[in-house]
Specification:
Elements lengths: L5 E4 L9 H10 L5 E6 L11 H10 L5 E6 L7 H6 L4 E5 L6 H10 L3 E6 L17 E5 L15 H10 L4 E5 L7 H7 L3 E4 L1 H4 L4 H15 L2
Parallel strand pairs: 1-8, 2-3, 3-4, 4-5, 5-6, 6-7, 7-8
This protein binds D-xylitol-5-phosphate and zinc ion.
The site of D-xylitol-5-phosphate (DX5) has 22 residues, from strand 2, strand 8 and helix 7.
Amino acid sequence: MPVQAKIGPSILNADLSNLANESQKLLDNGADYLHLDVMDGNFVPNLTFGHPMVKSLRNKIKTAFFETHMMVQNPEQWIEPMADAGVNLYTFHTEPVDDVAKVSRQVQEAGMKVGLAIKPGTDVKDIEKYIDLADVVLVMTVEPGFGGQSFMADMMPKVEWLRENYPNLDIEVDGGVGPKTIECCAKSGANMIVSGTAVVGASDQGQVIRQLRDVVQSYLK
Ligand code: DX5
Ligand code: ZN
């Protein structure tokens, strides 16, 4: 089945004390899914939230597709709690993981889709042997840890290589993506677009989300 354009706002730079309302607003404005950034203060030098918060959000928002972007040292540890919290796609960084195949299987067995994420310094070939186990590959376009950083266009060869070799794979980009950088991502073959500050801070979120989706769609055959 051909891939589809999907826009998943990152709520990292939203008002987290008002997460349910901020999330609902993004969904009402046309978001296809929510990208929830989980940081453990260890894999990345920042701390956000964990499964209790995701579960509370799920209680308020019953049907939306939730992705958790697990920027954590030990992703194995949070599989069960995140599945229980109602997560649909569990995207974890492969860098600190010894047995990526095993963790991927555990995610699947817990009833979630598998996302494999790589930092800017990680070669996409390092995860080549695991791609068949993945539903999504996330190519980071900033160093993970903070919202509002500048997009790294030099990550696009990874996206191009993935699209060339895996025409039906969901390829996600995250970090500094917005109206100014979407063309570059779309042209390279990304179809799942995470956008934080560019969407959350927009005066017309719906307009930005539509614009991002239209550009991606225009490059999908
Ligand atoms: C960075 C996070 C991103 C980030 C995106 O570590 O993984 O999801 O919040 O935000 P922007 O779009 O502002 O770079
Ligand atoms: Zn993220």
